[in-house]
Design brief:
Low-confidence stretches: none
Mean pLDDT: 95
Distance between the termini: 6 Å
Largest sheet: 4 strands, mixed
Order of helices and strands: EEEHEHEE
Number of strands: 6
Number of domains: 1
Strand order of the largest sheet: 3-6-4-5
Shape: globular
């Protein structure tokens, strides 16, 4: 697989994403459903957004790993949040740590939504290649 990132500016580097990713000679593409703070028994977390984001990241990493892919090869990540302000002000450092830990260079879209399932307030959807 060949992966090339494009960013005509530098300001997005501080936000832990790139403007575009080109992928060639892909062996496989994994489309991961939104991963949220759902415990192994299927119950939704009712914790604060920061705690939920940590669990959502763990769940995303688990799905990617079990499918035989690597988080460093996430090329598109969509973040659904019930409060963009809360995500940016109270959780963004966790997001940046996740990106840095895997050396990711991915596109990102952050969307504020009215509601997620049950008590959930953040969800991560990803596209991964190998």
């Amino acid at each position: 697989m060949e992966k090339k990132e494009f960013s005509p500016w530098e300001w997005q580097n501080q936000l832990s994403y790139v403007q575009a990713v080109e992928v060639k000679n892909v062996q496989g593409t994994l489309y991961v459903s939104g991963q949220a703070a759902v415990h192994p028994d299927g119950t939704s977390s009712n914790a604060d957004m920061r705690t939920q984001l940590a669990l959502a990241i763990q769940n995303l990493e688990k799905v990617i790993d079990e499918a035989g892919y690597e988080a460093k090869n996430i090329v598109r990540l969509t973040v659904y949040s019930t409060s963009s302000d809360e995500f940016i002000n109270n959780c963004f450092d966790l997001f940046q740590d996740f990106v840095a830990r895997h050396g990711m260079k991915q596109t990102v879209t952050l969307l504020q939504v009215v509601k997620l399932n049950e008590t959930l307030n953040v969800e991560l959807e990803a596209t991964v290649v190998k």
